[in-house]
Amino acid sequence: MAQAVHLPILARRPDLFEVAALCDLSPGTLRAVADRYRIARRHRTLDELLQTGGIDAVMILTSGSHGAAAATAAAAGLPVFCEKPLCYTLEEADGLAGAPLLLGYMKLYDPACRRARAILSKRPHPRSVEVTVLHPAAEAQLEHVRLLHEDDLAEATRAALREEADALAEQALGPAPPELRRLYTDVLLGSVVHDLAVVRGLAGDPLRIDHAETWGETSVVIHATLPGETRLSIRWHYLERYPAYREEVRVHDEQGMVALVFPSPYLLHAPTVLTVVESDDRSARTTRFHSTVEAFEEELVAFHRLVTAGEPAAAGVAEGRSDIVTCQLVMRRLAEHQGLELSGEALDR
């Protein structure tokens, strides 16, 4: 996400941002990316970056849980932009309570998504919300980015990262099978949280998870109940050779339908399409709206306002924590469907 989205946008917004320093565990990747964007200050660890000073805010764009890094930056008194997921455990999230943090749910800043929320706020409670995600391999979606990457991490560093991730997943779920842990960290917290964030704005957070199951290489279905007895259905499919990423959210109520179709997140300025179908006397009226205003850029502008004016983010620690709770509830239902029992934090959901 740093190379595909954030660094290109930061580079073209010198009116708001200066990238003062770059940090990465990989010395080769750090050197290549810093050279591309002409960033002089280069650090191998976050502690080193913070000790050097000279920065107003931190963007955390690594893979995995961001709890520890976000807590370190917040303890240094710095506002934080944090890519999803916020973290893997509720304990990590609770340690961030009160931190000035913007969570990277870029769809909340999409003009089409904002318009859909405004439309639905004037209509009766939805009867149902239906989400479908068709997710091809990331490599196919990123071919145009020409990522710079050096495979030069020491095996001891790789092992330490794996151990840390495994320990957090076990804290969340207990000693669950590896495939369930990956489903929790990579699919639910790594992707489905985007849809939970959109649904929260359109119809509210799930009150309960009624059913969840998984099948095939990675297909997940989630049925939940939202406020007002609205029913939510999420169908998420990893389809390695599917021709194009597609993500659709449909909201049905007594007056008609409000639907959002999102493009691949790696295609900057590709429009999200909002379709509204409603009755018009004895016929149906269909209205479509789309904008090439980039949601990621709007998100970064909001981060600038958080840093400079203290303006609250559309999603922060509280929303990230709420999504961890939902994902742990989903994992309980998935485990029950497979005849398994989880422990850890999920046991108390």
Strand order of the largest sheet: 7-8-9-6-10-11-12-13
- Molecular shape: globular
Please report the number of helical segments.
11
Pattern of helices and strands: HEHEHEHEHEHEHHHEEEEEEEHH
**Helicity range of the residues?**
25-40%
Give the C-alpha Rg: 20 Å
Total beta strands: 13
Q: What's the CATH architecture of the largest domain?
A: 2-Layer Sandwich
Strand share of the residues?
15-25%
Largest sheet: 8 strands, mixed
Separation, N- and C-terminal Cα atoms: 31 Å
Overall mean pLDDT:
96
CATH superfamily of the largest domain: Dihydrodipicolinate Reductase, domain 2
Unreliably modeled segments: none
* Class from helix and strand fractions: alpha/beta
